[in-house]
Specification:
This protein is an all-alpha fold. It has 2 domains: 94 residues, Endonuclease Iii, domain 2 (Orthogonal Bundle), CATH 1.10.1670.10; 100 residues, Endonuclease III, domain 1. 58% of the residues lie in helices and 0% in strands. It is elongated, with a radius of gyration of 19 Å. The chain starts with 8 loop residues before the first helix and ends with a helix.
């Protein structure tokens, strides 16, 4: 049964106010990187993998391959071995090599800013593109990861399973100055309180604003 949507402005603003109070308004990226292409490749690697695991791998990976050209020249089999502890390592190795070549040949070794150019890169969908736009270029963007999807449904902001549809719904609901912040805050909220299996509802500072909690009482 679909959860009832409750997206009135006052309620949305109250949720955002409490998230700000709890987690602050600083922009934080959980994937370690020193430049635009490192964040791009780290985000490609993070698909269906934890940020902790990705950071463990990229610590050595970015030393071995210090620039885009070294990734473009990398042998497929060797790069696969370098990232073998990350899921879908064969596909991700291929996508990183292909993206490195395109960045060099078509974009002057700079990760592009616009959505169409980003999503034309191998292994880059809207989620990865919005990570780059939000963190590198500070463009208001909404990244729909598993935490944002799950918690937005619990808040009653969406009923959809489609990440793209959820992205556009949240763009209509949330003020632009919270598009990036919402993702950052919700990741921490999802990891510490509102987990997928056993959410800590009794400890939750947002439980009275949560549609799912209200339905279960």
């Amino acid at each position: 049964m679909n959860k009832r949507l409750i997206v009135d402005k006052d309620r949305v603003n109250k949720i955002l106010e409490l998230l700000d109070e709890k987690y602050g308004t600083e922009y934080i990226c959980y994937l370690n990187h020193n430049n635009d292409w490192q964040l791009l490749f780290a985000t490609i690697l993070s698909a269906q993998c934890t940020d902790v695991r990705v950071n463990m791998v990229t610590k050595d990976l970015f030393k071995k391959y210090p620039d885009l050209q070294s990734f473009a020249n990398a042998k497929q089999e060797e790069l696969e071995k370098d990232i073998h502890s990350i899921g879908f390592h064969r596909m991700k190795a291929r996508n990183i090599r292909e993206s490195a070549k395109v960045l060099i040949e078509k974009h002057g070794s700079v990760v592009p800013k616009d959505l169409d150019s980003l999503t034309s890169l191998a292994g880059v969908g809207r989620k990865t593109a919005n990570v780059i736009r939000g963190n590198i270029y500070k463009e208001p963007s909404i990244v729909v990861d598993t935490h944002v999807k799950r918690i937005s449904k619990r808040f009653g902001f969406t009923n959809s399973e489609d990440p793209v549809k959820i992205e556009f719904e949240l763009m209509r609901i949330l003020p632009r100055d919270h598009w990036i912040l919402y993702n950052i805050q919700v990741i921490t909220f999802g990891r510490t309180i509102c987990s997928a299996i056993k959410p800590k509802c009794n400890e939750c500072f947002l439980k009275e604003l949560c549609v799912e909690y209200g339905q279960e009482r």
